[in-house]
Amino acid sequence: MLANAANNETCSTNIGNSSSRLCNQKMVKEEQELANRPDNTAFTQQRLPAWQPMLSAGIVIPGFVLIGLAFIGIGVALFVTSRSIQVLELDYTGLEQNSPCFKCTYPNVSNCVCDLDFSIDSLFKGTVFFYYGLSNYFQNFRKYGVSKDDVQLSGDLTNFKSPSDTCSPYVYDRNNQPIVPCGSIANSMFNDTFQLFQKINGTKTLVPFDGKGIAWWTDYNIKYRNPSVTPLKNAFNSTVKPIFWSKPAYELDTSDPANNGFINQNFLVWMRRAALPNFRKLYGRIDEGVYAQGLPAGSYSLAITYNYPVLSFGGRKKVVFSNVSWMGGKNEFLGIAYLVIGSLCVLMSIVMLIVYAKFKFPEED
Amino acid sequence: MARESEEPGMAKTSKVKRQRKKKPKENKTRTVHANLLYDNAKGEENPNRNYANNKIKTTKYTVLSFLPKNLFEQFHRFANVYFVFIALLNFVPVVNAFQPELALAPVVFILSVTAIKDLWEDYRRHRSDQEINHMDCLVYNRAERRYVERYWKEVRVGDFIRLRCNEILPADVLLLSSSDPDRLCHIETATLDGETNLKQRQVVRSFFDLDCDFDPLKYNGIIECEKPNNDLNRFRGYIIHRSGQRDALYKENLLLRGCTIRNTEEAVGIVIYAGHETKAMLNNNGPRYKRSKLERQMNVDVFWCVIILLVMCLFAAVGHGLWMFQYGDKRPVFDVLSPEGTDLSPIMSAIYLFLTMIIVFQVLIPISLFVSIEIVKICQVYFIHQDMDLYDEETDSHLQCRALNITEDLGQMQYIFSDKTGTLTENKMVFRRCTVAGVEYSHDANARRLAMYQEMDSEEEDCTSHGGTLPRRDSVTSHQSARVVLRSQSTKSHRRTGSRAEAKRASILSKHTAFSSPMEKDITPDPQLLDKVNECSSQMDFMRFHNQPMSQLPSDLADIIDFFIALTICNTVVVSSPNQPRQKVRMRFELKSPVKTIEDFIKRFTPSRLTSGSNSSSSSSLITNRSSNRGCSSLLSSPSAESTLTKLDEEQPPRGLEHSFGPVPPCYNGKAWNLEDGELRYEAESPDEAALVYAARAYKCSLVGRLPDQVTVELPHLGKLSFELLHTLGFDSTRKRMSVVVRHPLTDQITVYTKGADSAIMDLIKPPDTGSSKGKRQKKIVSRTQNYLNLYAADGLRTLCIAKKILSKEQYACWLQHHLQAETAIQGREELLFDSALRLETNLQLLGATGIEDRLQDGVPETIASLRKAGLQIWVLTGDKQETAVNIAYACKLLDPEEEILTLNADSQEACALLLEESLHYIQAKFLCSSTDQAAKAFHSNFAPFEIYPSSSPSSSSHTTPFTVLRLGLVIDGRTLAYALDKSLEDKFLAVARSCRSVLCCRSTPLQKSMVVKLVRNKLKVMTLAIGDGANDVSMIQVADVGVGISGQEGMQAVMASDFALPRFRYLQKLLLVHGHWCYSRLANMILYFFYKNAMFVALIFWYQFYCGFSGSAMIDQWYLIFFNLMFSAFPQLITGTLDKDVSAETLQQLPQLYVNGQNSEEYKPYMFWMNMIDAFYQSLVCFFIPYFAYADSDVDLFTWGTPITTLALLTILVHLGIETKTWTWMNWLSIAFSTALFFTVALCYNASCPTCYTPSNPYWTMQRLLQDPLFYLLCVITPVAALLPRYFYRACQGTLFPSPVQVGRQLDKLPTETRRNILSLSRVKAGSALSPKPPFLSLSKPSPKGCNKKDQRSFPSSETSQGPALQTDEQGQRSPLGPADSNKGPLDLYTIVPTEKDTLPYTKDTPKLPGEPRPPSTKDSECLGKTLEASDVSLSGWITSTPLLSQTGSVQLNLPPAQCVKYTRNSDQRLKSDHSVHPAQRTEQGAEQSLHTTL
Fold first, then answer.
1. Nearest CA-CA partner of A192 in A259, A93, A96
2. Cα Rg for chain A, rounded, in angstroms?
3. Which residues contact B327 (CB under 8 A, 6 or more apart)?
4. Which residue from B643, B693, B1113, B1319 lies 20 to 30 Å from B224 (Cα-Cα)?
């Protein structure tokens, strides 16, 4: 199109006696003939308007400073927030002789209960979350992670009879009875139980754990379902409980019949595999009655039913009390990271400024 | 009728016999019988049954075979096999990592994309096959006894088909009959070779003489011919008639499939080759596959990726083994036993894990890399196609990329090998001047006319344009004509030469005639010569009337008329008339009736006239046949050629022939002539021919008709004369000449007119008999002509010599006998014909010579200058003679007047070796000087030597050091080149050649061209580009890394062989500097990015292995893992890879130095891969450990932790791309936004779709929850910043403090246009030095500054010395032996070329004061110089003569453009002052004196 316009121009400027006629002729011809002419668009000619970020000192140095300052700001805020979070971690593996749970580490001890005494100096602001933690425990082991049957766990009775192969080798027991819930994850479910008592003047007051809603809402309501059989026990007919389990799935929580089967909160929490070998899992919240505002200062005793063996693979067990902020549990890392990166940015800008001043300015003069 | 009925039977018996005979010969020839005879018989009896039918099938697949065949082909690519292997590995339960079906997805996706593409292409081929197969043609049907319509696919070998005008040939057909009275058929071969001129094809000789229509039923010949082959220009065979007579078949008898019948109402032929066996189909090769340098480099790094992958897998496997081992017998609760319940030993698990890890880490080998590269290349090709700047409006053609996968090679070229004619020049041959019988006719008016075209041009161009054309300006102004006005309007619209604008107009008016722009046609005759022609012809007319023998004509006049007759008839030009396009003009005279009357001619010529022999002359035998009552039967049993010859032997001298030739009615009428003349149109095969015919026409000696057996010429006063054409010995590149044998109608002598390259002709001139006056005259003519030839060559004109020879009847008969034998031979026919031609073309009598100007193409000097600035070495390989080539080289700025020229001419191997040795010494000496010299002399900065760093892997140790290209030019001729290319010398030759700035190989054969390219490519390990336009460049184009064809006027062979086809040479600049640079930098960056991206992503999983017991577990969901490359991160990199421009096109063209970037592979060096890898590992560490620590000691679950990592990785990767993207268009923004959005959309949908699916990850509602988590956003901000900080910092530092040339270019882009232009114009010099970061390298170890300076003083002045136009005076010309044929050669053939600037020539030469030119040689001076030379420590004799080009005479300086003039004088002054010992001019003189042969 452009070229035609140009031709037009030429023609009009060059009007001679004979040339104008020729010119017209030529134009007509051209229009017909130039079938191969490329499109003259910004796209085809690669002339699209474009922004060219130029890494010149004038832009880079202020840019670095700005980013650095912003990061330092965020970092400070995060750090302060994280500082305000209180955490209390108590290891109860029982490896040490003086540990109250040492007695439970002997082999062939069953139904061992140990009391872990501790005290809180100041008010542990609520809501307090209570976690149990395992170290050196590889829930993220690949074959371990595969070993479950999601369909069975969603309450499909056909998979009660014949669980998926993925659960192997925890599909059938020696009598060829299907295991429900099958698979390694379910089989290895954490089965220590905890009871917290506040010791006031020698008397123990139970601090109740709220075990409801500790699992994901979607897990409890959608992903995991009990078969719609009442009573729940009947659904588990002709199946066996997982080998390591002491109680069948429908009797996990004797206190609350609604907290049994696959929608038992602790079961759900366990089934959500931890990302890293040192992890904690939520056991309950302390949000009832007087403890809704937090744990008052004082001494406490944690009664632990010590069932879960970890010593064979060098694992550790712990319990954690923690309150949370808007950004989750206590983690100073992120604040520090922001501060470090922010400072680095500022530092780099200074370095660049110095180098730039040293090398560039004389030259430009 | 009775005869007919017995025919089949006879044929059958003979067939049986022949078949039996033929069995063993089957593999050599093909026998074709007429199908008609077997119509009723069963299929098996048809002897043609084994030949391919005419149905073509170019498809690769059928419906059934598609899947297996396509898969099979795809699995030829190793990567595909690898990915399928990995996918299949997933089906093994022990090692599987992903859902097996899912793991198949990527490879299936990649395979199916390719399969769909293949399917579509195949379908299109199928459609076009169908279309072609169902075209109609007329095939003779025996039952109906007429031609019936058939589909093309039904045509079989042996069928008779009838072709009408403008029909396309369905198969290769032997022409048996034509409606044309001359038994000709014209075809247009545009679809085969792109040539639009008509070609003549002839009816097979035995069928030549049919009066009535050809009747297939009467045909009973058997054709024996070659097996199908793809040589379009060869067809050999013979036809055996029932009588046993054999007739040879030539390519002139064969009509090729795909050609179009023109000008011929009807033709009949028999199908020889059909379908896939036709020459056209056999020539139809698929697209070429080349692997680019970048791709080779990439493959190395892919290999490294494999190594890295294996190392990582091994590491993980060992780690896993150890991890398992630490638990010993105590199995932890989270360990899972094998399905059988047995325990796996740590070693076994490690082995299984190794395989699992290969699956998990497979992303490291970029599966989509190959597909992405293909897509990007297709887009790049699209953009190159679409570039307006590479589009030629006049020819309506744009650049074609014929090889799709080497676009990036264009950005890495180091050497350019160019053809000259048609590539650097227009290949528009314009008659410029001529010399006849030793008298020069300077054609001043014609020069002015040509200058006018140039003027049109230069008005348009910037004032700074090439000096080469400027001096002509002053001659233009006076000449004003109506044509000028017309022309000016057409040129202004686009900056083209007037000639091209004219050519366009001409081509619009008459589309088809090539070589006929007004510039080529309208030659202004030289008045002096015109007078002589008129005088001559009137005398001849007079003589004819008075029956005086023509020999009484004064010999100079006779020469003139012979000269023009030779120009007119010694060619293959066909005459046509534009009013009836493609209608041949028939010029028959009453008394000289067409072919049939040859019988009459024979009678008159009896006994046994000399008629047979030429391609038409077999008619003699036909005539004899005819007289033996054959009637119109085609069954000819003519006496063999031998019998004719026997008659010839006993022939008597002819007498009284005059009467027999139709004295043309002397009805010469100027007006009529003019009218007629205006209507004639010449269709020539080569532009030279056309130019000469048009030139002759300007002298009223015009070609009016050409038939196979006669040429009709119209002469002033004499009217139309018909020359009986006895033979045409066509042009070939070995002989470098063509000849016609005619019978002169006026003298009745058998005359050979030969036209050819001067070197070829001058050797064949009959040694003059010095005794007679005639001999003396001859000698004088020869020497003078030689002199003028040299002048012409110096002027850059193409020279052709015209000679003639008169044969006695006996001589002719003798020659004819041999020639006929040669013609009918099947084996070695070419060689025999060649020998036969050599026998004829001896003892010629020189008539004169012509100078044809081949004008430079538009913009060639600028293109060459800028390509050279871009660090490209340009070699010109041409078949032209040395002087012409050198002058064109000067004109196109390939050679610089300021540089020294090494000329290598040797005539023996030893001499060549010696010469090379000397050159090498000289160069080394000069090298030392120039490098020390550099610092001191800043004025050289303009032509600062280029630093060329050989590619990473130099061939030999001697080449490892960087070398400086000196300001030296090397000129070598074909013969010396042959020696230099010998194994023993090639290294030396290369050493010399590579240190020269430009190399010019003259008189090189096509084979030598390709050998040179191959040598440079293989020995120096450089990227080579060959550009050419003609068939002689094909081999060179094919050998080079990138072959470029110019789609010019010389047909399409070069284009067919090329990877890229350009309409004009100057487009090479943008193609290389802009598109090459872009393609290279885009692809290089994209590939590096690909490696980075995959490594970065995979490393995340690798780090995780340390936290999951090396179990092959991944925190990234398998979907993300598999589709990350394919979907989430795919689009932005494609967009960037396609559209990114590191520097704008304008800057790239204005600063060609930026091209060095690609030559040195600076965008993608091996270390960069590793830097990218390290960066990738660093970034992945950041992306892994920031979330790791952020979520440490929390209750985060696996995929709630893994999904943020995926997101962070994606963001980091995208921002990384952002850093590497130089230009952001809306498409870049869009693609990045799209990628991010796509990831989140897919993640959200995926995480919401199914609560129980996607084991093992089962990421239900993960993303949704993450989006509510502030921590997630905090991570998204800090991680990419932390990951990219080092890279960004590095880039920022580099960009600000130590910008690379490319970055400087980019910064220039940012400036406002005005400022930029100023800077560029100011810093054109400065930029060169500023941009080349490294100092000149000095490789020789003992620089002695003193000696250096001394040498320097010697060498530099010589390079700048001024020298008079140095046109050789008569004195010298006569003294110097004539041409290279002289026996007086020493071991070295010493040449001194004294090139003179083209511009100055018209003024010195056009004025005929040559003999008087003062000559300033002084032997004293030269002796003095000789001493100085000896004194210097370099043993440099005068063999290598530096030949500067500068005039010291004031007259020449005046002709130079003012600026240059001033500069030159100043420079030379400076030199003169600095140099006291040697006077510059003397040195060259001395060289001239010393040399044994002076060519100028």
1. A93
2. 36
3. A313, B335
4. B643
User: Cis (ω within 30 of 0) for the bond into B1212?
Assistant: no
Nearest CA in chain B to A1: B388
Which of B1047, B1197, B1275 would best serve as a mutation to test chain A binding (most A beta carbons within 10 A)?
B1197
- Residue A52 and residue B1306: Cβ atoms within 8 Å? yes
- Mean pLDDT across B749-772: 78
Residue B531 labelled as part of a binding site: no
B689 annotated ligand binder: yes
Q: Cis link prior to A181 (omega < 30° from 0)?
A: yes
- Residue B40 CA to residue B58 CA, distance in Å, equals 32
B489 → closest Cβ in A16, A146, A341 = A16
CB of A5 within 8 Å of a chain B CB? The answer is no
- Whether pLDDT at B490 is above 70: no
What torsion, rounded to 10 degrees, do the Cα atoms A97, A98, A101, A107 define? 20
Flag if A37 and B340 touch (Cβ within 8 Å): no
For residue B1, count CB atoms less than 10 angstroms from its CB and return exposed for 0-12, middle for 13-18, buried for 19 or more: exposed
The separation between CA B451 and the C-alpha centre of its own chain, rounded to angstroms, equals: 29
User: With the C-alpha atoms ordered B434, B436, B440, B441, is the resulting torsion angle positive or negative?
Assistant: negative
Q: Does A362 touch chain B (CB under 8 A)?
A: no
Q: Which of A243, A285, A21 is nearest to B333 (CA)?
A: A243
| Every domain of chain A and the residues it spans | 63-85+326-360, 88-324
Q: What is the spatial distance between Cα B183 and Cα B693, in angstroms, rounded to a whole number?
A: 25
Residue B753 to residue B640: CA distance in whole angstroms: 28
- The residue with greater pLDDT, B737 or B309, is B309
Lowest mean pLDDT among A173-177, B246-250, B1348-1352: B1348-1352
ipTM exceeding 0.95, yes/no: no
**Quick one: tokens of B57?**
């099938």
Q: Strand, coil or helix: what is B754?
A: strand
User: Which residues fall within 8 angstroms of residue B1458, CB to CB, at 6 or more apart?
Assistant: none
- H helix or E strand, kind and range, residue B1213: helix B1198-1220
Q: Decide: pTM greater than 0.80.
A: no
Who among B334, B508, B1202 is closest to A137 (CB)? B334
Are A275 and B391 in contact (CB < 8 Å)? no
- Chain segment B386-437, per-residue pLDDT in tens: 888 888 877 778 888 877 778 889 999 999 999 887 788 877 777 878 888 8
Rounded Cα–Cα distance for residues B1359 and B1354 (Å)? 9
Provide the chain A residues 14-73 that lie in CB contact (below 8 A) with chain B.
Answer: 14, 16, 18-19, 22-23, 25-26, 29-30, 33-40, 44-46, 48-57, 60, 67, 71
What whole-number distance in Å separates Cα of residue B335 and Cα of residue B339?
A: 12
Confidence of residue B26 (pLDDT cuts 50, 70, 90): very low
d(CA A203, nearest CA chain B) in Å: 33
- The first and second tokens of residue B167, run together, are 């029909």
Please list the alpha-helical segments (H only) found in B442-521.
444-460, 482-493, 498-509, 518-521
Query: Which residues, 6+ apart, have CB-to-CB distance to B199 below 8 Å?
Result: B186, B187, B188, B189
**H or E segment to which residue B974 belongs:** helix B974-980
Contact assignment for A143 to B1255 by CB distance below 8 Å: no
Give the position of tokens 């670095």: A64
- 8 Å CB contact between B1114 and A146: no
Q: Are B384 and B1145 in contact (CB under 8 A)?
A: no
Pair type for strands B998-1002 and B968-973:
parallel
The DSSP secondary-structure symbol of B343 reads P
Pairwise CA distance, residues B330 & B350, whole Å: 18
